[in-house]
Amino acid sequence: MVAITLRCSTTVHLLSILVVMMMVRPSNGGSNDGDDLHSVPLTVVKGAVAEGAVCLDGSPPVYQWAAGRGGGVRNWIIFLQGGGWCLNTTMQLPGRAPVESCAARATIFLASSRHMAPANFTHALSPLSNTSYFYNWNRVFVRYCDGGSFAGNADKQDPVTHVYYRGARIFDAVVRDLMARGLKDARNVLFAGVCGRSGAMVHCDRFCGHFPKNVVRVKCLADSSFFLRVKDPSRAKFLDRVFRTVVDVQRPHRALPAGCTSKMSAAACFFPQNLLRYIKSPIFIINPVFDAYQIKTTFSVDLNNQVTNHTVSRSNMTLLQGFRRELINALPPAKAGNGSSDEIEILMYLYLY
């Protein structure tokens, strides 16, 4: 594991290490401190449908919440579930990973709360004190069903697939519901998006803005979300097309920073390397050096297989080293907004599988 620290206070550094430990180490079992691992029910967000905050198929959004206890009763960890984007068509370049059609997805759990079953709370969400630092916190798992990283806000149904793109409305409805359940009284909050999605980046500042500064400690975390637009236009072509199409379909414009969209296209602002430059709140980035989907779509499936099997040739190793440098250089420089506590704190862990 390689740690790239751009700006990090002692508190942020210690918390980030804890988070990384929770993400990568398996559960070791042990005594149960309260909850049953399989007993966290789905909570339907009341009133969401009336506000237009719906899953792809029009069903209401849901989340799972295990209430905090003891010393963790006013601490919260909130995860946005990942699950990949979908489009109003199926895109595929020869030999590379396709992007699923939202119409094809609409009958499964990633598009409809009607097809969801409760997920087990493990790793960072585990109730076991010997497995997770957050075992007695309020632990929330926001289920993913919008196909666009909780960012979409299209007013009308898609005329091709007849589904809804309302991820931003889902996010707002869930936060309002959690506020009423005690989140407004929180002391410490970790807001995270895991497994390749950028929702935590998109909503980081907006989420942190719900809490008074210097009173509540709020941090964001984006795990496996840093898909890079490389400088080589030919290699950037596929992801460029995916991002443009997602933005055209999902209409995430209002969820993106106005400072970014005033200077470049919404599709460009959706790329993490641009989006991150406009995030003012403390955020952790945890990312593989050579993400499988990134390598497949930017280079080739064959090169990804070489990485997986540790059979990379000398010439391809040079290619990958160049990509690694470009990934690190794409991170924004540390800077202070007003010379005080508004200073951006970024810590990025690059890890190899």
Automatic annotation (TrEMBL):
InterPro entries found in the cross-reference section: PAE/NOTUM
GO cellular component, one term: plant-type cell wall
Keywords: Cell wall, Cell wall biogenesis/degradation, Hydrolase, Secreted, Signal
Keyword Protease: no
Biological processes annotated in GO: cell wall organization
Signal peptide annotation: 1-29
Leading EC class: hydrolase
Cell location: Secreted, Cell wall
Its EC number(s): 3.1.1.-
GO molecular function: pectin acetylesterase activity
Family: Belongs to the pectinacetylesterase family.
UniProt function note: Hydrolyzes acetyl esters in homogalacturonan regions of pectin. In type I primary cell wall, galacturonic acid residues of pectin can be acetylated at the O-2 and O-3 positions. Decreasing the degree of acetylation of pectin gels in vitro alters their physical properties.
Name under which the protein is recorded: Pectin acetylesterase
